[in-house]
Design goal:
Blueprint: H1 13-28, H2 30-47, H3 61-64, E1 74-84, H4 88-97, H5 100-104, E2 114-119, E3 122-123, E4 139-140, H6 143-151, E5 155-157, H7 167-181, E6 184-186, E7 188-189, H8 192-195, E8 199-203, E9 206-214, E10 229-230, H9 235-248, E11 251-257, H10 268-280, E12 284-288, E13 296-299, E14 302-305, E15 310-312, H11 318-321, E16 322-331, E17 335-346, E18 349-352, H12 359-370, E19 378-380, E20 383-389, H13 391-398
Length: 399
């Protein structure tokens, strides 16, 4: 494997200076961060539950998780992950090993009624697609969508800053591949009407709506009248759609591609969009784009993942490789639970961080997830769990 395969991705020219300044600032604070992580690690060791060691074998969900999809009172369960693509370095790994090993170590955790992630790539086998006016292009083979379904995925978000890397032909090919594999999708379309189509899924008498918006894009990427593309996170676009979804579904899941790459916490813009979406009726907000794990919180009655980090990606910095799998459960009485399963990505392959050997990485991930959070987090073995109340959401739907 070439040494440069997992080097940091070169940022666009107009952001290089900003990124370099940010990295210099992080280096100046490295000792402080290390001290904080060491203290958190010690606390977690004292709590206990550090008896397993990391293994390459598939994970047994029963040995890790608290959330039980088979509970009698369980109304709905979901698993959500971050950014995925199968191009560039990931594509080289797939050529050598195939797709199945990418998911093997975490596949048992990709379970529940609803399993989603951010598909941050064009999906097409056409080598001659046009290129947008940008520096980084991500194009993955069509077979990747079938691999996602085999791994357990049901739903993908298309509203991001790579879905239009190859223009409308690339987006059209992506939609065809996604639909051909049987995946639900939201946030992009070959015309404005298709882009604004809300995805509804039925689980018995329980209806879930999925919407996707991006606050990060290149000129020409946004769907307009008589022009396809992805949906932007402007109030004029986003809020009426969330209100509509709330009127027609029991649960509204909003994917939001927003924030700053590699940031240390939620930005003011992210908080602004979250508050607006929550007020409009979003019940769960799944954030993408920063490529690092950020705070998980509750805003109003809305469960918010400010950034789910990476899942299958080839970036090589430690913070972009330390991420998590989020599991969500809603009971019939409106009590809800969120579970954070820490993962580490090596050669684009996510693996659960377990046992004493993973204590330091796990502490770093947990510190980012809980920073500034109002949720009542508790440690259960090697995962974090928080219970909270969403009964008001169900009462509104029943009224």
């Amino acid at each position: 494997m070439s040494a440069e395969l997992f080097e940091p991705v070169t940022p666009p020219v107009d952001r290089r200076g900003q990124l370099q300044r940010r990295l210099r600032e992080e280096r100046r604070h490295a000792n402080h961060h290390a001290t904080v992580a060491a203290i958190v690690t010690l606390a977690l060791v004292l709590v206990g539950g550090l008896t397993r060691t990391a293994t390459a074998d598939p994970v047994n969900p029963a040995s890790l998780t608290v959330l039980d999809p088979e509970r009698p009172d369980e109304l709905f369960t979901a698993t959500m992950v971050g950014d995925m693509m199968f191009a560039r370095g990931v594509g080289e790994i797939v050529e050598r090993r195939g797709y199945e090993p990418l998911f093997r170590n975490v596949q048992p955790l990709l379970a529940g009624d609803y399993v989603s992630g951010n598909l941050e790539t064009v999906v097409s086998d056409d080598p001659d697609l046009p290129e947008a006016d940008k520096l980084i292009f991500l194009q993955s083979p069509t077979a990747s969508t079938e691999a996602m379904v085999d791994a357990g995925f049901t739903t993908v978000s298309l509203a991001n800053n790579h879905a239009m890397d190859h223009g409308i032909p690339g987006l059209s090919a992506t939609i065809e591949a996604v639909e051909g594999a049987g995946l639900h999708h939201a946030g992009g379309g070959r015309d404005l009407d298709e882009a604004k189509t809300i995805d509804y899924q039925e689980f018995g008498d329980f209806t879930v709506a999925t919407l996707s918006f991006t606050d990060v894009f290149v000129n020409g990427f946004i769907a307009r009248a008589f022009q396809g593309g992805v949906l932007d996170a402007s109030e004029d676009t986003m809020l009426p759609m969330i209100v509509e979804a709330d009127a027609n579904a029991d649960l509204v899941i909003v994917n939001m591609h927003f924030g700053e790459e590699y940031d240390n916490g939620p930005s003011a813009r992210q908080r602004e969009l979250v508050e607006a979406a929550s007020a409009a009726g979003a019940d769960v907000i799944a954030g993408h784009h920063p490529h690092v794990a950020l705070t998980v919180d509750v805003v109003g009655d809305t469960l918010v993942f400010y950034s789910l980090g990476n899942f299958v990606f080839d970036q090589g910095w430690s913070r972009t490789r330390e991420s998590f799998i989020a599991r969500y459960g809603l009971d019939e009485d409106g009590s809800a639970m969120v579970e954070i399963v820490p993962i580490y990505i090596e050669e684009a392959t996510p693996r659960v961080v377990e046992g004493l050997s993973g204590a330091y990485r796990r502490a770093r991930i947990f510190q980012r997830v809980t920073a500034g959070s109002s949720l009542p987090w508790q440690r259960e073995g090697d995962v974090l769990v928080a219970e909270f109340d969403q009964s008001a959401m169900l009462e509104e739907e029943q009224s």
